[in-house]
Amino acid sequence: MTAQTVLQTPTLLIDRAKEAMQKAYAPYSHHYVGAALLSEDGRIWTGCNIENAAYSPSICAERTAIAKAVSEGARSFAAIAIVGGREGHITGSFPPCGVCRQVMAEFCCPDTFLVFLGTPTGFETHTLRELLPSGFFPSALQGD
Amino acid sequence: MTAQTVLQTPTLLIDRAKEAMQKAYAPYSHHYVGAALLSEDGRIWTGCNIENAAYSPSICAERTAIAKAVSEGARSFAAIAIVGGREGHITGSFPPCGVCRQVMAEFCCPDTFLVFLGTPTGFETHTLRELLPSGFFPSALQGD
Amino acid sequence: MTAQTVLQTPTLLIDRAKEAMQKAYAPYSHHYVGAALLSEDGRIWTGCNIENAAYSPSICAERTAIAKAVSEGARSFAAIAIVGGREGHITGSFPPCGVCRQVMAEFCCPDTFLVFLGTPTGFETHTLRELLPSGFFPSALQGD
Amino acid sequence: MTAQTVLQTPTLLIDRAKEAMQKAYAPYSHHYVGAALLSEDGRIWTGCNIENAAYSPSICAERTAIAKAVSEGARSFAAIAIVGGREGHITGSFPPCGVCRQVMAEFCCPDTFLVFLGTPTGFETHTLRELLPSGFFPSALQGD
User: Fold this and answer.
1) Could you tell me the residue ranges of all domains in chain D?
2) What single DSSP character describes residue C95?
3) pTM of the predicted structure, to 2 decimals
4) CA angle, corner C85, sides to C82 and C90, nearest 5?
5) Does the domain spanning B3-133 belong to CATH 3.40.140.10?
6) Across the interface, do B99 and A98 touch by the CB < 8 Å criterion?
7) Catalytic site residue C124?
8) Per CB distance under 8 Å, which residues of B are interface residues toward A?
9) What is the tens place of the pLDDT at every residue in D20-71?
């Protein structure tokens, strides 16, 4: 399946994110989040949040999915779906935290990368630029 | 001086951020950043970026200033000024990274908290909401 | 292959870590690190370091491998191999940073989890407890 | 007071850490931690833990104190005291997390930097090297 085909049916990605949410390791917050990341060449990687007793080494579902993809050679991405909740139910919209937006900014085109946020009744769609305007992008350092 | 007075002359904050930039510890990136944070009651805290050989434990100027303020009892803030560059010169606009926006979101009102970004010739002004729309705010967890 | 079989031949893990190192995304430090994580049930996950322009959202090879494994349901681990260098050559021993040791502490038994550090001529072996004595373990919070 | 004088009476540092603990911002874990950092020239900086709804941008008491000190020009340190608990009472020994040990490694001499861990009845003393053996030190990158 191409990335374009998946983008025509975002619920495919949302469903993968829901499955991934079941693997979440969240013994401290009890909030479970799942993500499904689509690369430009049509592959999908999933992630969940993984917490840590010391809090700051915790990683979110979005970053888990991106780390998996990058570690397997992917470098350009089309979209990500994110769902969150408690006890396996989507209880609201969980927009990505600032850390995850920053990690997206490293690899994703602000104007074309799509973020699908699952809600109890459907999903919302944002571009990365809508979520991280005036971003601190790699060009800030690489331009030296 | 009250917070309101300082906000009428943002260059006061910009100047404090420039001074703070000189304390930056940036042996890996060689980018020096300074910040000056204004609390609602008119106090000012400054910070600089502090890097780490392992990269991820690095902290930005903005978060350094916020950590100082919170550790001294401040909990509500009016504005922050941020300047960055190399070798002590402001070489461009350094918008806050996503991690810092997330930390601002913990303590600052999205609609009234102002971010002054120093540039080589002056400064730009943003609200936190403009920099972190659809943010992941504490209410997401505290609402349980 | 069982975990026990792999542990009898640590170079198997070292070799997987070397392969993973080739996927590293390290445009800022130019240090490339790879890791291969062995779960108790004999599965192997690999990871590489993935840097970020803002530095603190960077992730190390070890944490990438652990995030992959946990997101696919693994929860108990036997060992990890780590290699690092520049331009694809192992240039020294790259012991895990404190952040990665903390993430290991969340999932791994301090006394039995083995860390194999690749060197230009072979490898060294440590237990997690040797690398993180008097650790801040999950029990500190979960005991409430 | 010189650093040497303070080191002869570690309870001075412990007491400062206890005071700092009262400023902790810990609405998620409800664990309160305070730290007091002693520079080689006898100055003391205090810090507390400051949590974040997104967990990973949280900062520990130790790193708050170090960020404050470095941002005010200090670069070499003699010791740190750490105390932790709930509701203002020291409920046990809170050894520093791996992230904080890594940040100490950036600035502190492994063999001489002392870590005083407050306990309900007194304190324990460790060197940084005892807490972070085979550490990933700045020399790993700066040696290039």
Assistant:
1) 3-133
2) P
3) 0.96
4) 75
5) yes
6) yes
7) no
8) 29, 31, 86, 92, 94-103, 105, 117, 126, 130-136, 140-141, 144
9) 999 999 999 999 999 999 999 999 999 999 999 999 999 999 999 999 999 9
